[in-house]
Design goal:
6% strand; Arc Repressor Mutant, subunit A; 2 strands; single chain
């Protein structure tokens, strides 16, 4: 018996394979924006944009994105150097800075949103609303189960 028997039919395996292919497509299209940043760094920028109006510090961003603090710091450093983000010193705490999106960051976010909506439209052409709703339901349920299982194993 082959140890891969049935693996390619497993839901998790199909999700991972599809996710990798989607990420490959998105990365290729993302490079066409000439943003000079990685897709991962764009994720940090996008996340910060969703929290507009909130005073976010590096630690907050790392925790909410489930990333380690040093990886977030590297991304923030690069994004700041390329003028996509700014650090604003807090008057009451010299050790932490509030992270905000700069105008250049807003511009690339707009271009990225247009790109993703275009890709979404192309990829969804072959699906009915019922199929999309069913897929979304299943993925949301799996994500919630994974999140609750991860929380149970945190010591």
């Amino acid at each position: 018996m082959n140890c891969n028997d049935g693996l390619q039919d497993a839901l998790g395996f199909k999700i991972i394979q599809t996710g990798k292919l989607l990420l490959k497509k998105i990365n290729a299209d993302f490079q066409s924006l000439n943003a000079e940043i990685t897709f991962e760094q764009m994720g940090v920028l996008y996340f910060i944009s969703t929290k507009e109006g909130e005073d976010l510090i590096q630690q907050d961003i790392a925790e909410m994105m489930n990333k380690n603090k040093s990886a977030i710091l590297r991304s923030i450093d690069i994004l700041e150097k390329k003028n996509y983000l700014v650090r604003v010193k807090q008057n009451n705490d010299r050790r932490s800075n509030i992270i905000r999106i700069a105008e250049k960051g807003n511009q690339i976010l707009q271009k990225t949103q247009e790109l993703f909506l275009s890709l979404e439209s192309i990829m969804n052409k072959e699906f009915t609303e019922t199929e999309k709703a069913g897929c979304t339901f299943v993925l949301d349920k799996l994500r919630n189960r994974c999140n609750s299982n991860c929380e149970k194993h945190v010591d």
